[in-house]
Each structure stands twice: as C-alpha cells, then as structure tokens.
Amino acid sequence: MTRLISDRELTATTVVANNTMNRERGLTGVNSYARELGFDPAAWLREHGGASPAWLDLCSSEGRALAEAARRLPPTAELTGVDLVGPQAARPAPQALAADADAARPGLRLITAAVADWTPTLGPGRSYDLITCVHGLHYLGDQLAALTRAATWLAPAGRLAAHFDPDSIRHPDGSSAARPVVAALRAAGFAYHPRRHLLVLDGGRSVHLPFTYTGADPSAGPNYTGQPAVASHYRHTARTPV
C-alpha cells in the first residue's frame, strides 16, 4: 500500500521543494502565463479590475509575470506572489534596485511561504480580482482545500484560474477519483477545460466539496506535463450542508 504523508512532510520532499516549473515563465510570449491560461492576466485586469486591481499568483516562483504586469497596470495595483521556495534568481545590486521602478512599488510583493499555510493580508473590504495558479496545484497535497480557500478570497466579479490534473486525485485505495471530483467542482461553479487542464471559477463564493483529504503521495511520478508531481488522496464523504 502506498505510504501517504502530511502536507508538512510534503514541503520537504524534492519533488516539491526543488520545483522549477515557473522559474522562467513571463507574462506574455512563448513561455508565458498568457499562453498557459489562454488569456493575458494584465489585459484581463485592466478590463475587469477597476482602478486598483488585485492579482494573487499562487506558486509564483520568480514572480516574473507579476513584475511584468506591474509595468502595465496602475501604480495602485496590488500584485502578490506566494511560493514555497520563492525567487532564486540573482538580485540586482542596490544601486540598480534604486533605479528599478518595480522595486519601488509597494503593491508588488513576493512572499516565500507554503500555500497551504498562507492567509491573505489585503485591506478591509478588499478581495482579489484575479487569482492564478499556473501548474502549481501539481505540487500541493490538499489541492481541493487550496481551491476552496482561494474561492473565498475572490471578488464577486473576479476570476480564479488554476491548472488541475484530475488524474492526480485518488481514492484511499489509490484508484482514480477524477470523475466524482470534476463533477463536484462543476456542481460548485467551476468550469473545467480538459484541453488546457484548466479550472476556472468566475465570481468569489464559498465552496463545499464532499471529500476528506487523507494524505499525499510524492512518488506518483510524472503527470501530463512530463514533470514529477504529487497524487492527492481523498475519501468521498457526504456533502457539507451550506
């Protein structure tokens, strides 16, 4: 039987801690968020985010897409990236930083933290207009909890877009739980686009899914991206009353 581990143990495994999925990915172009998501996040925020748009990028790695978006959005925009490892690229010298417009922006923050443990710190009455997780759920244990938490951080007219591999969701015996999980997500308001392996939720809300997390398997092997990923195991339970 597969040995399942806790999310705290999972963060120390090489498949998670050394992940390089988004290290070089920018905002637009060949290797970009726009290509992976099917829309340009900065353009979407300019159209839907109002005068002070807020974008949260989970598993943001180097935060290149956020930094590029900062140049295209109003100075009042709040751009936050959260990543377990955080930026690893060499930083400019202090004198270069002083001349870097992005470095002086108080609204651009890259936070090194486990996504499962992090809580937003937006001001009173604020929520995120856009939340993204580009190929990041593949390295989380309780993927469904990450999705349900993010749904509550979203503005009423906001969008959550996250890559999701249904084959990574398993029953306690290791068999696939893809069908019931995708059905439950769709019933909760998510749209799933199989060609892109993308979940999209338009409009913040409370989401209740009838599954109880039992642990993670970091030895599941490569997923559809070709990279080693995590399998998340759940027990199907009665739906929680709303």
Task: Summarize it.
The protein is an alpha/beta fold and about 240 residues long.
Walk me through this protein's architecture:
With about 240 residues, the chain is an alpha/beta fold. The chain has a single domain (about 5-235), classed as Vaccinia Virus protein VP39 (Rossmann fold, 3-Layer(aba) Sandwich), CATH 3.40.50. Helices cover about 20% and strands about 25% of the residues. The chain contains 8 helices and 10 strands. The protein has helices at about 5-10, 15, 35, 40-50, 65-70, 95-100, 145-150, 180-185, and strands at about 55-60, 80-85, 110, 130-135, 155-165, 170, 190-195, 200, 210-220, 230-235. The strands form 2 sheets. Strands 3-2-1-4-5-8-7 form a 7-stranded mixed sheet, sandwiched between helices. Strands 6-10-9 form a 3-stranded mixed sheet, with helices on one face. A hairpin with a 5-residue loop joins strand 9 (about 210-220) and strand 10. The longest helix is centred in the middle third of the chain and has 10 residues, at about 145-150. It is globular, with a radius of gyration of 18 Å. About 40% of the residues are buried.
Average residue-wise pLDDT = 89
The largest sheet, given as strand count, sense and whether it forms a barrel, is: 7 strands, mixed
Poorly predicted regions: 90-103
Looking at the overall shape, the CATH architecture is: 3-Layer(aba) Sandwich
CATH domain topology: Rossmann fold
Count of separate structural domains: 1
Could you give the distance between the termini?
35 Å
- Please tell me how large the radius of gyration is: 18 Å
In CATH, the homologous superfamily goes by the name Vaccinia Virus protein VP39
Q: Assign the structural class, choosing from mainly alpha, mainly beta, alpha/beta, alpha+beta, or little secondary structure.
A: alpha/beta
Q: What count of helical segments does DSSP give? A: 8
Spatial strand order of the main sheet: 3-2-1-4-5-8-7
Question: What's the CATH C level?
Answer: Alpha Beta
* Strand residues, percent: 25-35%
How many strands in all? 10
